TrEMBL record:
Residues in Dipeptidylpeptidase IV N-terminal domain copies: 453-608
Database matches in Pfam families: DPPIV_N, Peptidase_S9
Superkingdom assignment: Bacteria
Domain Peptidase S9 prolyl oligopeptidase catalytic: 709-910
Signal sequence, renumbered to the chain: 1-31
The name this protein goes by in its record: S9 family peptidase
Biased segments, Low complexity type: 204-222
Length: 913
């Protein structure tokens, strides 16, 4: 049975009704009434070192859940809190039992002893480093409180270890040197003895002694290898520190150092068995067996594609090749024979990807050709190289540049020509057939062209795909038959007004009976599924209402019902729904108020599985029986229970109307003893930009700054902490996500103004002591607001903000910021540099200097503009020399929030007693 199940949250079936109310409602109150865990008692000793400890409280949720064909078994990749890698678990819905099929101990039988030794050594290193980092953080906090703490104890211990390792290495090297010298001396004397023997002279006694001595270990070597060999005394402390730095760089953990576990699972078509991939090798498991059967290990990264149609073999990939093997016989057959072209062909395509039909009878090949024809000598011409930018690293004696790829909005694109081939899968032993011509091509070039994955009908009779051409604002959907020469038909076209956030979720797929093509469109202002009837050639909306439902999970075998993830009843969560294909009626299957992620549905439509949870009960893998009254079972236990000790407050969700009548979602942490008449300091956290389906007000999100730090500041310092999803965010419909287009920053600032007015009236805050904070797009938004409305917020913290959109990645800027022009950097019109002179209140700029996503130069250039406009007394920089977009170099999560805490207390002050 489901445990810690929260009661149904207040919500309605449409966007306006769900958000119009300005009254707040609390997760805590509704959860407490159902017996769910309540927040821990407030503690005056709560510290940042506790809430942001070195080992996060959050474990890893299950990945790759997949049902067997019958629906009886659910396989998933997971491990309990603290264990490395992701192992394979199989749950039997008939018996209710779960079987663990892999573990480091089980897979040790297939790994080299050296790998096992490395896995164990590196795991111990990781745990040791994590414990040491936590101890350092706690000790540093104690030191700053004035306590007598030895902050050098860890370095001293590490230096001693370096000295011992250095001494051991020196002893080993000297022993080898002595042995080599002795061997050379013996060889010299042996040669002299041989020469003497050949010349008839007596063999020197010294040579005989040397020969016998050469066969025994050198006494000198033995002496040199004694464990008490002295460490050389002439190194100074700074030199030992240099040696320590070299050791730390040499021993730095890499992903391949730790036990990885299983990375892929594929079920058979009918049989209750699966094939998994572990470290590039393939293994088979048959239900009822307690052990795995090794199938194939070529010391290469093999990837499973599917079982053969009769389940008597399997299809897998090696690089770009698709191969077939059978269980009962040796040998491997290549299925996707490489494309062949005559010497004078204009375009010589090579296979880039292959998609097999479910019945394994057909395959779709995507080929790419060089962007330039071969030279006169017939040799390929080198491909044009894209833009690269340099990122400076400061970890060595002198700064060193690292180059990373960067395509910005005014770069000329190098889109290789594309071709789609439809090919029949050859039978075992069948001779190669003549290659057919491609059924679809695109010339490539200086254009933005995207193509969805190929979707096959279940019976392999037809396929479908969509294309998007950004410059033309042209979306097309194609359907083709299982024919090597027939071109696909364009069945749907939309030019302009497509919706900027719909392109990457269109993903057409057939219903099981093959009669309808379901795809996601934004025809009514929300991303929702539509059905194209292949017979009547009509498009039909499948759900009604103002909500997002862009994740189509599957269908019942009779094609009468569809399963989707949607935020129909609660915009802060995604529930799972069964949808009638006839009338669009929807039945909720998951727990209301829980956010469901990575959901899958069984082939028979009787079962669903998803990672689901909320602020009260952290997400776990849930198995849902999709009956008239759905039942749930929790399969995993992923997170550290110690979180309960610091989980001292829960937020209240609320919404408010902005000046345009839009309802803006948000949540607030109110401190203990809060009253509406208070005059407390407050901080608002914002992201503000479109990003697929993510936003900040999500019922299962424990985002470090928006949630965890906000909880801490409310509990520790009595602040009122608000997180807002302004216009500009995704998953609230097109009116929100498109608000940013050609106007980045302004709609969000209007919503922040309206929020400030509401907080000043109803939230018990001092209007003159409200701060603003955001990261990434939120860093841009914080600066935009501080520059354009200089008296609205008392201070701001802007993290890693893209301040010059013309220099940001074109995949994002050209889709969400504004129309681009590859002849000039026209997105510079949205730069914050000219606006910086408007700053009037303190601003902290935060950035990782090795950030390959939002370049550190974006912050430097704003900083320069602020200095040039006389804002030296208002602006501060907080930099992580080794940090990337999420920091994590020298500055850990606890470190940058320690800086945040100090900044807010300095500029917003304390709560009056």
């Amino acid at each position: 049975m489901f445990k810690n199940q929260p009661s149904k949250l207040a919500g309605t079936s449409c966007l306006l009704a769900a958000l119009l109310s300005a009254a707040s409602f609390s997760f805590t109150a509704s959860a407490a009434s159902s017996g769910a865990a309540t927040p821990a008692p407030l503690s005056s000793t709560l510290s940042l070192e506790q809430v942001f400890r070195a080992e996060p409280y959050r474990g890893e949720n299950a990945r790759e859940p997949k049902f067997s064909r019958s629906g009886r078994y659910l396989a998933y990749l997971w491990n309990p809190f603290g264990e490395p890698g992701t192992d394979l678990y199989v749950h039997d819905s008939k018996t209710g039992k779960t079987q663990r099929l892999t573990s480091p101990a089980i897979m040790a039988a297939f790994d080299a002893p050296e790998d096992l030794q490395r896995f164990d050594k590196k795991l111990q290193q990781k745990r040791s480093e994590t414990a040491e980092r936590q101890a350092r953080e706690v000790a540093q906090a104690a030191y700053l409180r004035g306590e007598n703490v030895d902050l050098g104890q860890w370095e001293a211990a590490q230096l001693e270890l370096v000295k011992k390792e250095f001494a051991a290495k020196k002893a080993k090297d000297e022993a080898q040197k002595a042995a080599d010298k002795a061997e050379a001396e013996a060889e010299k004397k042996a040669a002299a003895a041989l020469e003497a023997k050949r010349s008839g002279k007596p063999v020197p006694a010294a040579a005989e002694a040397a020969a016998s001595a050469a066969s025994a270990p050198s006494a000198t070597a033995k002496a040199e290898t004694k464990p008490d060999a002295k460490v050389e005394k002439d190194k100074e402390l700074w030199e030992w520190r240099d040696e320590l730095k070299k050791k730390q760089l040499r021993d730095k953990l890499k992903p391949s150092d730790l036990y990885p576990g299983v990375t892929q699972i594929v079920w058979a078509h009918k049989a209750e068995e699966l094939i998994l991939q572990y470290r590039g090798a393939l293994f088979r498991w048959v239900s009822g067996d307690s052990k795995l059967q090794p199938l194939l290990d070529l010391q290469r990264n093999l990837r499973m594609v599917a079982y053969t149609a009769d389940d008597a073999g399997y299809v897998f990939m090696d690089d770009k090749r698709v191969l077939r093997a059978r269980f009962n016989q040796g040998g491997v057959q290549v299925l996707n024979r490489e494309l062949i072209h005559p010497d004078d062909a204009d375009k010589k395509y090579a296979i880039e990807s292959t998609t097999l039909s479910e019945d394994s009878r057909w395959m779709a090949l995507i080929g790419r050709a060089p962007s330039k024809p071969a030279g006169d000598d017939g040799k390929p011409v080198p491909e044009p190289t894209g833009r690269q930018v340099e990122i400076m690293g400061y970890n060595e004696r002198f700064a060193k540049a690292k180059k990373v790829d960067r395509e910005v909005s005014d770069d000329k694109r190098v889109n290789k020509p594309l071709a789609l081939y439809i090919r029949k899968v050859p039978a075992a032993g069948e001779a190669p057939a003549k290659q057919s011509a491609p059924v679809f091509t695109h010339a490539g070039g200086d254009v933005w062209f995207e193509m969805s994955p190929i979707a096959w009908a279940r019976d392999g009779s037809r396929y479908a795909f969509s294309t998007w051409e950004r410059e033309k604002e042209l979306l097309r959907v194609y359907v083709g038959g299982a024919d090597e020469s027939a071109k696909p038909e364009m069945v749907l076209e939309r030019r302009g007004d497509v919706g900027h956030e719909v392109v990457n979720v269109v993903r057409p797929r057939f219903t099981p009976d093959g009669k309808q093509l379901v795809l996601v469109l934004d025809e009514a202002g929300f991303r929702q599924p539509y059905a194209w009837d292949l017979s009547s050639r009509k498009l039909r909306r499948l759900v009604q209402g103002e909500f997002e439902a862009h994740q189509v999970l599957g269908f019942t075998p009779d094609s009468k019902s569809m399963f989707v993830a949607a935020n129909k009843d609660d915009l802060a969560s995604m529930n799972l729904f069964r949808v009638s294909m006839a009338d669009g009626s929807m039945q909720a299957l998951g727990v209301p108020g829980e956010y469901h992620r990575n959901a899958v549905v069984s082939h028979d439509g009787q079962w669903l599985a998803a990672n689901a949870g909320n602020w009260v009960s952290r997400p776990e893998l849930k198995l849902i029986e999709a009956g008239a009254k759905p039942t749930l079972k929790t399969l995993t236990d992923s997170h550290d229970k110690a979180w309960a000790q610091v989980d001292v407050l829960r937020p209240e969700r609320f919404s408010f109307k902005n000046r345009h009548g839009d309802s803006i979602p948000a949540y607030v942490f109110k401190p203990q003893g809060w009253k509406a008449s208070d005059k407390r300091p407050a901080v608002v956290y914002i992201y503000g930009g479109p990003l697929n389906d993510r936003h900040s007000v999500e019922s299962d999100s424990f985002q470090p700054s928006a949630y965890v730090f906000a909880m801490y500041m409310a509990a520790k310092h009595g602040y009122v902490m608000v997180t807002i999803d302004s216009r500009g965010h995704s998953n609230y419909g097109r009116r929100f996500s498109d608000a940013n287009w050609e106007n980045p920053g302004l709609p969000q600032t209007e919503d922040l103004e309206d929020l400030h007015a509401l907080m000043s009236k109803d939230f018990g805050i001092d209007p003159a002591r409200v701060g603003l904070n955001g990261w990434s797009f939120g860093g841009f938004q914080t600066q935009y607001t501080m520059f354009s409305k200089p008296d609205l917020f008392a201070a701001g913290i802007a993290g890693a903000g893209p301040t010059e959109w013309e220099n940001y990645n074109s995949w994002y800027s050209g889709r969400t910021i504004g129309k681009t022009d590859r002849s000039k950097p026209n997105l510079r019109k949205f730069s914050l540099i000219p606006m910086a002179k408007g700053l009037r209140k303190p601003l902290l700029l935060v950035h990782g200097m090795m950030d390959p996503n939002v370049l550190y130069q974006d912050t430097v250039n704003v900083y320069r503009a602020l200095l040039e406009s006389g804002k030296e007394g208002l602006v501060d920089l907080f930099l992580d020399p080794e940090g990337e977009h999420g920091m994590g170099g020298a500055v850990k999560t606890v470190g940058w929030h320690r800086k945040y805490e100090a900044f807010w207390l300095q500029h917003l002050g304390h709560v009056a007693p």
